[in-house]
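Progress against Task 2.4 (sequence-to-structure conversion) is shown through the following example record, which the project officer requested during the mid-term review.
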Amino acid sequence: MLAPVQAFDFRAETSTLNNNLSFSRESEASYYGSDGYLHFAKPGRNWLSQSQNLAVSPWVQVLAFVSTVSNIPAPDGSDTTCKVSEEYTPGEHRLSRSIQVPQGQPVTISLYLKEGTRSKVQISFSESASFTGGNPTIQFDLAAGTVMAASSNVIRYQAVSSGNGWWRVQLTAIPDLGSTTGFHIYMLNENGSISYEGSVDHYMYAWGAQVEPGMDMTAYTPTAEDAYLGLRYNYRLSDAAPVLAGALIEPESTNLVPYSQKLEGTPWRKQAASTPLATVKSPDGVTFGYKIKESTASSAHYIVPNPVIATEAGNVYTISAFFKAAERTWVYFNVSGLTIHYDVLNGILGNKSSIFIDAAIENAGNGWYRCAATFIASSSNTSTVIGCEISNGKQSYAGDGTSGVLIWGIQLEKAAAMTSYIRTNATAATRNADIVILNRPSASAASDIFTQRINGGNWIKQTSANYQIEQSENEIQIINFYDSDVISTEHEDIAVELFPENFVSVGSSGTMLSMFDKTFMIQTPNKQWSLQKAINKSSPLYRAQVNAGEVWSGDYTNKYRERSEFYMKNAQMPYDQDVWLSFAIKIEPGEALNLDPSDFCYLGQFHASEDEGDISSPPVLGFRLEGLDTIKAYTCSTTITPHTISPKAFLRASGQFTRGIWHKNVMRIRFSPTDGQFQWWKDGVELVNISGIGIGYPDAVGPYWKFGIYRSPMPQTVAVEYANMEVQYNTSLESRITDPLLIV
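Structure tokens generated for the chain above:
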């Protein structure tokens, strides 16, 4: 496989600074950690490990020793203050750190300091060879709160009073000559010298060191063994142990719900319910959840924000909340009078109204689930009712006065999908966007960039600038830069080799799903493998499999059928007009189909929409798998109406489809019982172009498209993958012949 010229892998947490990556976010943001709990990442970054414990490595003590004291509160009120004392030996009495930073960009050091028996300090960058003019330096008087001196290559400095004699001192400079630096914190004697004979009776206090990019110090972020680089490495909690999904790089979003995790008091109106604080820890493992506790009334039992939240009619919103089963295991959202239901014991979506354009239920760890529903607001104020129920869709019932369900962390955001949780108090709160920029490879004039998220990949071609990662609610896993002379087939090979398809069942028979702008319903024997979707691909990529004896319930009256198919719902094709079909197909390795004349195995078919009195006839255009790797196209037609005898099928074209290989297909079809046309390109090469033939029956409406596997009973297992299924009759797909959609 072609090697990338530069690679960023977010599938493993790192605390090592990468000079080719810059990050910023100006607010806190939540994520699921490796411990299975929800955490809140602070804004900014801190490139130092052990930012508070100055007595341990990698801090270096030179003629100084550090102890922790409990009688001097740290700036955060804790007992973690460090006392820095001198040794008797003559020389410099200092603490030092080394660090790699981006060359040519501003770097800011900050540190909390408090006078003891020493009040004068000097803070200096280290590695003078990295700075024009030597080490940038300031001297500060902790007693007076004044800067005594600053070198000319310091581009910014300040000291901010933090109370109780603490000062947060900042020093900013640009390492223009190198990337190796660090800093020293010197104690000065009464004469302002850095070299003198020390005394154990002389000391000062220090706490909370931070090194970060930029001209200004941001809110202090404490660290322990690892530096904090700002990125949120998010874990999925649906398995036996938390699994790292990648880095969350999200767009800005605002939680419009005040008091999102404080459900007592007037901001929450209760109907036949109360909200006592529970003794069960919330998803963050720190705070406690609440309980929607039903009354004894015979009615719905719910809570609702008070007042009702303002929305913008016509815009898309998503409501979400964390739930944990208690005596009740079903919950619901009611938005503007319409409902969606969730089983929060088993993590299953229940009934839902068509108002909801999307829904999700996410394992939040320790028995908690985060439920979400997306809808289009219909007015300037949207009622968002949240309640418990005794079963799927049964909101109104006589309560027992004690039962209910646990709840925490309610969110309503103007977004097309649920994003990470944003906690609020008295007002709405905003999570600012994550801004992550990757430097382009210095040796490359232009690059093709492959990005892979948890839900699929993408290629960005011919990029000659630094790349800002696109924001999404889905975690980023890798971003690789490649030389721009890579051809499209290699793009697909790279995507498949790095991320083989991860298939899951699309659901039970009757499930509806979308492919591009078309809706399909599934007909399946309801085996886990019958119809599947690749959840780690951006391309619509599906897999169909049929084993011997697997019969769809709709075929039980005629068991001479085996199938796993998608069929286009309420989308009949027009007559006497171009219909375009474009898709990729891969037949998985398996046995040859040595069929009798009456046997068939269709991998795709345009099925007639029979009029009253018509018999069920063969497809008007069908594609059969025969032998090991041959697909043959057959057409049927008649001018008789109603027709009571099945028309004869005519072979129109044939192509060889090597098993285990993707083949790209484009077809142009004109349905007409007397003047049809069929044109077929396979991998850019025309297989057939015929016109003036019959394709179809004189029905009131045209045929509809089905694909998957539809066959007569046979012992062989057949499995086929399909990607980028497009059907159009108002737009040409001719460009797909020479420029097919990538499978990524």
